[in-house]
Design goal:
Elements (H helix, E strand, L loop, with lengths): L1 H13 L6 E4 H4 L8 E4 L6 H14 L5 H12 L1 H31 L12 E5 L3 H10 L5 E3 L2 E5 L8 H13 L2
Antiparallel strand pairs: 1-2, 3-5, 4-5
Length: 177
């Protein structure tokens, strides 16, 4: 990250490229739905850009909610709170990894391919005709979201113990198209 910021700073210093940086506090502080973030242009001192962003952003989005801002300030001042947040991140990352591993194992066990999850809250299971497969899965009480290339499965919303049911239902639906 630091190396990338150095590269961006060098570009910004040349004055030929407008380089911005954004941050979503919602996910990084486990405030999903809290809607707090920033968009900054740290290498630009343009008064015209400042005026445009002040007017445009203020008129479009206004300010973010006070609670996420207060949490961000508290964390900045409290090393123990930062440590607790880091521990919470590690815990939930391990939960998601276990769910992804369980889903891969169940998919392979059902004769389908593993997904090889690398992070995040969702995975996409490639299937032909995702809309039809999703509808048939839903009819069997297994809920996914159709995407252009497959089904979006929310690892964040399923238990590892539910992976075999998802894989078996998918296998059944694909076999009876």
């Amino acid at each position: 990250m630091a190396a990338a910021l150095g590269d961006y700073a060098a570009l910004g210093a040349q004055g030929r490229v407008l380089v911005g940086a954004s941050l979503s506090v919602s996910k990084s502080l486990t405030l999903y739905g809290g809607r707090c973030g920033a968009l900054v242009f740290p290498w630009s001192a343009s008064p015209a850009l400042q005026a445009a962003l002040t007017q445009s952003c203020r008129g479009t989005w206004s300010n973010c909610a006070k609670a996420p801002q207060a949490l961000l300030l508290r964390l900045a001042k409290d090393a123990q709170a930062q440590d607790r947040l880091a521990a919470e991140h590690r815990h939930w990352s391990a939960v998601l990894a276990a769910r992804a591993a369980a889903l891969d194992e169940a998919l392979v066990g059902a004769g389908l391919g593993a997904l090889h999850w690398t992070g995040g809250f969702f995975v996409c299971v490639p299937v032909p005709d995702p809309d039809a497969v999703c509808a048939r899965m839903r009819a069997e009480g297994v809920f996914t979201v159709p995407l252009p290339v497959g089904l979006r499965v929310g690892l964040c919303g399923m238990r590892a113990s539910e992976a075999p049911r998802l894989a078996q239902t998918l296998r059944r639906v694909l076999d009876h198209r």
